[in-house]
Amino acid sequence: MSAPDISASFRGDRATGVLLLLAGLSGGLGVALSAMAAHVPGGELLSSAANMLLFHAPAFLALAALRAIGPSGVLAVATLALAVGLALFAGDLTSRVMLGDRLYPMAAPTGGSLMILGWAGILLAGAVRLVRRA
After folding, report:
1. Alpha-carbon dihedral of residues 17, 20, 25, 28, nearest 10 degrees?
2. Residue 83 is part of which domain span?
3. Distance between CA atoms of 38 and 79, rounded to whole angstroms?
4. Is 86 contained in some domain?
5. In degrees to the nearest 10, what's the CA dihedral of 79, 58, 52, 33?
């Protein structure tokens, strides 16, 4: 009798943990930037960054909950695109206000494009799921 391979379930726990960390980080930073936006010059940029963070926090929670039902490779790439895109977009807007300069030229548009690709990946994962069920 051999021992069951539980390594896959531990990898799943780690990925779920990462998604929960992303959700908490996005939500917490979104609230903090919303508060800061009310008190600093250039608050409209912080408000935009806060909104993106707050909009994506529930998405990371949903991705954690849905990990078991979607095509894992597609969802993993989509999640990575969302996370990196969100960091670039919100980070660039925050950097402009707090540091007076961009992260690097085109950081916010690159981040926005990555977020769009991430959402497209989620769309693709849904389509794959539907085709496989049909």
Report:
1. -140
2. 9-133
3. 30
4. yes
5. -120
